[in-house]
Specification:
With 498 residues, this protein is an all-alpha fold. 73% of the residues lie in helices and 1% in strands. It comes from Gemmobacter fulvus. Keywords: Membrane, Plasmid, Transmembrane, Transmembrane helix.
Length: 498
């Protein structure tokens, strides 16, 4: 691992790739700071624009946007009481109260320092644990990979969204979409509807962009807001120093980082859960729990540190097993596929410079937040909050359309973008999560190909799928993950009936 990191370091320090990380961090800050947009949306817009670029340059921008957007959501949460991203909801509980007390600058400083610490420790965990998980995955054969793919689908379907059945249905829809195109085993076309454009399946760039970029734009058009953030809240002056008070925050940072890393590794848990758990832990362990929600900076520190610690950690199962730990990691998996990089053990053996370079870029972008995410940059990006939605929505739509059209230079992709985007908006209004769809598209073909290969090797004997201890363990985990929400639903119905 050390040799691979040293080999990737010169590529990461290349001026062009350094600029890519910086550019992505700045863009992520802007995306996170704009209410209604999320890191997922920003990445969905970014990925088609990186088509044809050097993989490490593209991944550098993704790494920067991931960490930058994670902190950027704290800006409107603290200044406006509007969470820039879903993971910044816990930040506004104390952050906005600090703004009302005239401590907005200090709250933003706590947020950025805590986010940097969480993101940096998360990147270190990615570098340490991902290669180890790859070594474990090398013991897997086709049957084990089939069950791992199903485990990923079961986990994400049950953990993303408030309704287990809706999450499961979204994952099944992704599986159906993943079957479109030409069957590699038989050469038969499936669900192409006579269209040559579907012969290779539904384009992952179009699908990603439509699912995650179009619904927020439609929501902006719905609100048709002509007003941005009030000018008086943008009068920010430096207040205190968080680093001088590090002893106060060290226990919060330590516990929140551990919570964020653990939640990130768990497939499907996501940043929203980590920031809430970190916030609740800080409140529970505080000597003054009654001050939380009333402007306690430790609440901001816990939320943002837990949120940042979730970032790179969610890529540990994504890069090594192809099972993302969050919706954002699922989109990044799509970005890897766009650049011809298939997640899994082969990624570490066939493209070590790229994968280890990406890990180092995650670490680098975390520290760049100190430079570009400080008070001066926050003041600049805070001005973007004053941009009305009626201006912002068409600008986003323009960039999305240009990026999607540039992939294949085909109007058909734009029609698909519009159709799938409207469908995704309807799904969102009905509370169907979008991330399981992407997981179904990515993991479905993997499960199908591995199942076909396992049955071919065994001569068609189904029992070969559960002939190894590893297969049995993964099957048991899958059954357990699916049974927990079903058991909860059954108990809830019994209570209601009784």
């Amino acid at each position: 691992m050390i040799d691979a990191l040293l080999s990737a370091l010169p590529h990461v320090m290349d001026p062009a790739n350094l600029f890519a990380v910086l550019l992505g961090t700045v863009a992520g800050l802007l995306v996170g700071a704009l209410p209604g947009l999320t890191v997922t949306t920003g990445l969905a817009v970014l990925i088609p624009l990186t088509f044809g670029m050097d993989p490490l340059f593209a991944l550098g921008m993704m790494a920067g946007m991931y960490n930058g957007g994670s902190y950027g959501g704290a800006i409107p949460a603290i200044l406006l009481r509007v969470p820039g991203t879903p993971a910044s909801v816990a930040t506004l509980l104390d952050g906005y109260e600090m703004t009302k007390q005239g401590k907005a600058a200090y709250a933003l400083q706590v947020a950025v320092v805590s986010g940097v610490i969480g993101s940096a420790l998360s990147a270190v965990s990615l570098i340490v644990f991902a290669p180890w998980l790859v070594k474990v995955s090398l013991m897997f054969g086709p049957a084990e990979y089939f069950w791992v793919a199903l485990l990923g689908l079961a986990t994400v379907a049950s953990l993303l969204g408030d309704d287990f059945l809706k999450g499961l249905m979204a994952a099944i829809l992704g599986l159906l979409i993943g079957t479109m195109g030409t069957d590699l085993a038989t050469g038969t076309e499936r669900y192409t509807f006579g269209r040559l454009e579907f012969a290779d399946g539904l384009d992952i760039v179009v699908l990603l962009t439509a699912l995650f970029a179009i619904p927020p734009v439609i929501q902006m058009i719905e609100t048709a807001s002509h007003q941005g953030m009030p000018k008086e809240l943008l009068n920010l002056r430096k207040q205190g120093s968080v680093l001088r008070e590090w002893r106060r925050y060290l226990p919060v940072w330590s516990r929140s980082s551990v919570i964020g890393i653990i939640i990130g590794i768990l497939p499907g848990a996501g940043g929203s859960m980590s920031c809430y758990l970190a916030y609740n832990d800080a409140k529970r362990r505080s000597s003054e729990p009654e001050t939380f929600g009333k402007g306690n900076p430790e609440g901001v520190a816990a939320s943002e540190c837990g949120n940042g610690a979730d970032n790179a950690a969610s890529l540990i199962p994504a890069l090594s097993l192809g099972i993302p730990g969050s919706g954002v990691a699922a989109v990044i998996l799509g970005g890897l596929l766009v650049h011809g990089l298939r997640p899994g053990p082969q990624l570490f053996t066939e493209h070590p410079d790229v994968v280890y370079g990406f890990m180092l870029q995650m670490l680098l972008s975390a520290f760049l937040l100190v430079l570009v995410g400080g008070l001066a940059a926050t003041r600049i990006f805070g001005q973007a909050l004053r941009l009305p939605h009626v201006v912002l929505a068409p600008l986003i739509l323009l960039f999305v359309a240009i990026g999607v059209y540039a992939v294949n230079n085909a109007m058909f992709d734009l029609y698909l973008l519009l159709g799938i985007g409207v469908f995704a908006y309807v799904m969102e209004r009905l509370d169907y999560p979008s991330a399981p769809i992407i997981l179904g598209v990515i993991l479905g073909p993997i499960a199908e190909s591995q199942l076909s290969l396992a049955l071919t090797i065994s001569g068609g004997h189904p029992l070969a799928l559960v002939s190894s201890p590893m297969s049995i363990i993964v099957v048991a985990l899958t059954v357990f993950i699916l049974s927990v929400p079903l058991w909860g639903m059954w108990k809830a119905r019994r209570v209601t009936a009784g």
